[in-house]
Amino acid sequence: MSGPLTPDELLRYSRHTLLPEFGLEGQARLKASKVLIVGAGGLGSPAALYLAAAGVGTIGLVDFDAVDVTNLQRQVLYGTADVGRPKLDVAAARLRDINPLISIQLHGEALRAANARELVRAYDLVLDGTDNFATRFLVNDACVMEKRPNVYGSVFRFEGQAAVFAAPGGPCYRCLHPEPPPAGLIPNCAEGGVLGVLPGVIGTIQATEAIKLVTRVGEPLIGKLLLYDALKMRFRTISLARDPECPICGDAPTIHELQEYDLSCESTSALRASVDKPEEGPMTADELFQWRKEKRPHLLVDVRQPSEHAAASIDGAILIPLAELQANVKRLPKDQPIVVHCQTGGRSAIAVGMLKLQGFDARNLSGGIRAWRARAGE
Fold first, then answer.
1. Residue 153 to residue 171: CA distance in whole angstroms
2. Known catalytic residues?
3. Euclidean distance between CA atoms 216 and 302, whole angstroms
C-alpha cells in the first residue's frame, strides 16, 4: 500500500489529517507502513482494530490458535459465534470490514527460530502481543537482528507494561530481562488471571506507539518502561537505558543466532502438581500461628511485590519476589522448613513447587496473607 491518498482515504482519515502535527504527510506514512502483530489475542485484538482503523497500509497477523470461549472476556476481535474458528479467519474478516482500504496478511503459524527473522524482515516494525516468555524473547531477538522496532506490551492480573524496544540507540527487552525465567516460575494469564479491560488499555497504548513511530510524531517510549496499575488507576514511567553488556544488543553481543526456549504451561503445571504431597498439605493460618507460638524453627518467605509487602506483612517474613526467587535460592536454608506466602496462595504455590524440586522442605501458606490477617482479626 503506497502512493498518494485517494479521495476515499482523504474522507475516511479526515480527522487525522486535520491534526497539524499529523496532516497529509502523517497519513501517507501510515498508508505506506507495514506492521506485524505477533499474537491476535488480548493485546493484539485492540491493537489490530485501531491500526486498521487508522489506515496502516499493511497489517500482518501471526497466530495459529482457534477462538475459545475463555478468550471472549478480553479478546474483542471475536464473538460467541466465532468459538472454535481459527482466529486469523475471524480477525481478517473483522479488520477488512473496519477498513477495506488496507491489506491484511495472515501468517497462520507459530513464531519459531526458523521463520522469525524472515517474518520480521518483511515489516517496518513489530507489535508484540504474545503472552509467554519464550515467544517474547524470540520477537525481541529477531527485531534486534533485523533492526526493527519492537513495540512491547504485557499484562498480568491488574497490571500492565508497555515500551518500545530495539529502536536505534535504545534498549532491547534483554536489557530489562537478560534471560528467560526458569520454566514455570511465572504464571500466565490462564493461571493467574487478568482483568478483561487491561489488555485493551495496553494494546491501545501499543497501537499508539506504533502510529507514533511510523508517522514520526511525538515521543515514543524508547528508553522508557510504562507501568500501569488498574486497581489504583496509576501510570508510572521509569527510565531504561541500553545495557552495554546486553547479550544481544550490547557492545560485544554473545547471541548471534535465534534460539527457542521451552517455557510451556506444562512446566508450570508440573510445578503445581509437586507443591504438596498428600501427607503434608498446604499449611493453614492456624498451623502457622501454632508454629510461631511454639517457636518452631522455620523461615517465612514472602514472594509478593515490594509494594504489597509494604502495605501488609507478617512479622519476620523475608521478601523475595517470585520473579527473583531462583536468583536468590542459595540464600535459603535446607536444614529447616520454609513457609512461603503471597496474597492468596497462587504465587506461593508455584514457588513451593520450584523449591521442592530443588530439595527444599517447603510449605505453602493456604490463603496467603489474607488468611493470616483474618486469623489475627485484622
1. 15
2. 189, 342
3. 45
Q: What does the alpha-carbon distance between residue 378 and residue 374 come to, in Å, rounded to a whole number?
A: 6
**How far apart, in Å, are the Cα atoms of 268 and each of 132, 160, 277, 327?**
12, 21, 17, 18
- HSE-CB at 114 with a 13 A cutoff on CA atoms is 2
Number of Cβ atoms within 10 Å of the Cβ of 106? 17
Q: What is the pLDDT of residues 70-97, one digit of tens each?
A: 999 999 999 999 999 999 999 999 999 9
Kindly report, residue by residue over 30-39, the tens digit of the pLDDT. Answer: 999 999 999 9
What does the mean pLDDT of the chain come to?
Answer: 90
d(CA 84, CA 262): 26
Range of the domain at 136: 33-267
SS3 content of the chain, % helix, strand, coil (to 5): 40, 15, 45
Distance of CA 233 to the CA centre of its chain: 19
Buried b (16+ CB within 10 A) or exposed e, 341-359: bbbebbbbbbbbbbbbeee
Domain match, 211 and 296 both? no
pLDDT, mean of residues 355-359: 86
Instruction: Clarify whether residues 255 and 292 are in a common domain.
Output: no
Q: Which residue has the cell 502495605?
A: 311
- Do 134 and 282 sit in the same domain of this protein? no
User: Residues 321, 327, 329, 332: is their CA dihedral positive or negative?
Assistant: negative
- Same domain, residue pair 243 and 328: no
Residue 269 has pLDDT above 50, yes or no: no
